[in-house]
Amino acid sequence: MTGFSNLRRAVVVLGALGALSVTVPAFAQQPEVRLGFLGSITGPIAQLVPPIVRSSQLAVEQINAQGGILGGRRLNVIVADDQCNAQGANDGASKLVNVDQVTAIVGALCSGATIAAANSVAIPNGVVMISPASTSPAITGLQDRDLVFRVAPSDAYQGQVMAKYVIDKGIRRVALTWINNDYGRGFSGAFRAAYERLGGTITAGEAHEPNQASYRSTLATLSRERPEALVLLAYAGGTGLTLIRQSLEGGFFNRFIGGDGMRDDVLIREIGAQNLNILITQPVSLPGNTSLETFNRDFAAVQGNPASIFVAQGYDSTFLLALAIQRAGSTDRAAISRALRQVTAAGGEPIGPGEWRKAVEALAAGRAIKYAGASGSIDFDENGDVPGVIAEFTIQNNSFTQGARLRAP
Q1: Which of 50, 159, 319, 335 could bridge to 59 as Cys pair (CB 3.0-4.6 Å)?
Q2: Which of 196, 199, 177 is nearest to 188 (CA)?
Q3: Residue 384 Rama label (left phi>0; alpha psi -120 to 50; beta)
Q4: Gap between the Cα atoms of 134 and 149, Å rounded
């Protein structure tokens, strides 16, 4: 966050989202425990962020309603805007860590923001981060001292799944463009390698920069060899909308394929569902996940939309950090990373969304616990990554609708 105007904007966003109606217990006369939420309150994914923030708030409200953290202290989440770019992420993370003195950070959401905040602020200060949505393969290789985790699968996997999906759809020749940032570069590289290995042809591939008024020359180059579709790896609220609009206006492309960054209702509002022929891939939870069912019920009860992208992950990231703090027994930053792995290790007593009191009682009795995530199985590997499930999304009845679960080649 770069100033008080952004702070006020974040507060307004949070206030507009509403609050959970609960009876809050009296809290011990101790300082509150603070978590940071580093997210793109402004920028190309801003329309996707309020529900994710709300899901994080829901976890905090449930914890406070069930007695608070560390013997009755209030848990609070402080929001900072990273603007979905490196400088904004550095400013926002620095404020959270050095001014607000947060114990750990939920976020960031954009991959480049997560990498920048981790390298410049979180890792040097020993602060754990859990991202609900950052998917760049570059995050896997960070020299992070076991401080950077995520609950969304890497695009190293999603790129392979998307490639097989496109081939299975009978689409053998595509053009490829990607936003020139960590998200776009990592996703496009994974997709290209897998697609070509499966026999597909990339007729042309080109990165594009944000904030350009026109991409018509890029689109003309990409469409020259008459590919069957344009694979567009970007954010719909940023370059994605402009590229699709100019593709349709100029007759360059009429069929599109995108990843999770393109699943944004702004496309439907601005382009019209009847004009959109687009296939989307996105991480999802497995059906039959009772933790997801519980979260969906609780989130809907506070006027949240469970179908919003990455809301289950936003909730899980927050609840996990709180469990790690409780397991560590303090706000000591150095202890939280170890505790985080302990509350996700196999063999512990299952703890689902909203089961805060059950978790506190189990830990107080010396029993091991394992959080059963709303977003799916949270089994961190040595890099802080999780396995994932990818599904297709298409537009039906004027909205994005989840279809079949997809597999890697």
Answers
A1: 319
A2: 177
A3: left
A4: 10
**129 in a domain, yes or no?**
yes
- Number of domains the chain contains: 2
Structure tokens at 186: 């990592």
25 pLDDT above the threshold of 90:
no
pLDDT of 63 higher than 70: yes
- pLDDT value for 1: 31
Whether residue 92 is found in the same domain as residue 202: no
In a domain, 382, yes or no: no
Nearest partner of 223 among 238, 206, 240, 237, judged by Cα:
206
How far lies 34's CA from each of 51, 75, 190, 217, 330, in Å? Answer: 20, 6, 37, 48, 12
Regarding whether 255 and 398 lie in a shared domain, the answer is yes
Residues linked to residue 208 through DSSP beta bridges, in sequence order: 179
65 with 173, same domain: the answer is no
Question: Containing domain of residue 71, as a range?
Answer: 4-153+288-371
Helix orientation angle between 241-250 and 216-223, rounded to the nearest 10 degrees? 60
The verdict on 123 and 266 lying in the same domain is no
pLDDT category at 377 given cuts 50, 70, 90 is confident
Does 185 share its domain with 319?
Answer: no
Share above pLDDT 90 across residues of the chain, in percent, rounded to a whole number? 89
Residue 378 lies in a domain: no
Same domain for 134 and 179, yes or no, is no
Please state whether beta strands 256-258 and 278-284 pair in parallel, antiparallel, or not at all (unpaired).
parallel
- Of the candidates 89, 72, 71, the residue with the CA atom closest to the CA atom of residue 80: 89
Q: Decide: 130 and 150 in contact? Cβ < 8 Å.
A: yes
What are the tokens at 99? 């001014």
Chain segment 88-147, per-residue pLDDT in tens: 999 999 999 999 999 999 999 999 999 999 999 999 999 999 999 999 999 999 999 999
**Secondary structure letter of residue 106 according to DSSP:** E
Distance (Å, rounded) from C-alpha 120 to C-alpha 128?
A: 13
Check if the beta carbon of residue 344 is closer than 8 Å to that of residue 320.
yes
200 within 8 A of 255, measured Cβ to Cβ = no
